[in-house]
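Section handout, structural biology tutorial.
Before the tutorial, make sure you can parse a SMILES string by hand: atoms, branches in parentheses, ring closures as digits. In the record below the ligand is 2-acetamido-2-deoxy-beta-D-glucopyranose, and the chain has 306 residues. In the tutorial you will relate the predicted structure tokens back to the input. Do not try to memorize them.
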Amino acid sequence: MGVQAGVLLCWLHVLCAVVFGDVWKVEVESKIDALVSSCVVLPCTFKYPAQEQPSSRIRAMWHTKTNRKDYIYNNDHTNVIENFKGRTKLIGSLGALNCSLEIDGVRNHDNGPYCFRVELGTSAKYSFVNNCVTIKMIEKASKPELLAETSVEEGQPLIFKCSVRHTCPSHQPTLSWNHTGKTITSYKDIGHGKWEAESSLTFIPTKEDDHSSVACTVKYHGSVEGEMQVTHQIFVKVEQANLSHFIIPTISGLGAALLVGLLCLLVVIKYRKRIADLQSRNDNTESEAHRRSTGMQGGEQQLICF
Ligand SMILES: *[C@@H]1O[C@H](CO)[C@@H](O)[C@H](O)[C@H]1NC(C)=O
Ligand SMILES: *[C@@H]1O[C@H](CO)[C@@H](O)[C@H](O)[C@H]1NC(C)=O
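Predicted structure of the complex:
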């Protein structure tokens, strides 16, 4: 009976743990890209099997997976390995169960993996070594992406959109244009630690903008290398009103000429047959000379038309 009660209690404990999340748990992105020399934020949330504590009562660390004593972040700043001193910052609020870490001035060999560790008092401690984060280094930024129409009508507003994806939300990149207009910048969390910064530019093109190029330039936090600019050439169509002044008279003129020509052709075909008929009838009664003069008349009729 004693054993059975014990088993039951144990099962209840497990059930409670599952249902109420009464366990040590961390959520991170196992892989994240980072631009060398910029910053990267490792998103992180955690849970612990105890009453909620204020930030001040929670000690947090990040360490390498290979050595739990190699801290890349520690509440106690003196206890951080040389390579990471002054480069890491916990940007999440521990009281709100947010353990997100910022690594600034990303270096080529910062790959990790790195694991989060939490300590509540002296007895409750946990290193989440089964959910660590590996960083993939991006040495050179790729071109910003630019969306815009190529051919526009003069006087119609033109919208350009330029965007970049990155993993450094604590220092968002800036996007700038080399054409005046109305600009709107937005930053969007697109999940898995990735962010998108976008700038839109709206202006009304003039004739002077025809065949010109508009450039969007990105400036990342840090001295990032790579392609920072994208250009887009635009072609401004002349106003519709000017176009119709030229095209409509041309089309109607051509149409009228074609109609007259067609009518002439019909008349000629009809009369040629009649003339031929008359000629063959006259053949029997009139002389050779007479016939030639009537033939001339038929020829004259054709000349009028063409
Ligand atoms: C954790 O904190 C970071 C930085 O303040 C924030 O961007 C992120 O949205 C937070 N995560 C959650 C799940 O609240
Ligand atoms: C914007 O920059 C591009 C590329 O440098 C250049 O070709 C273009 O003429 C510039 N446009 C304006 C309006 O300055």
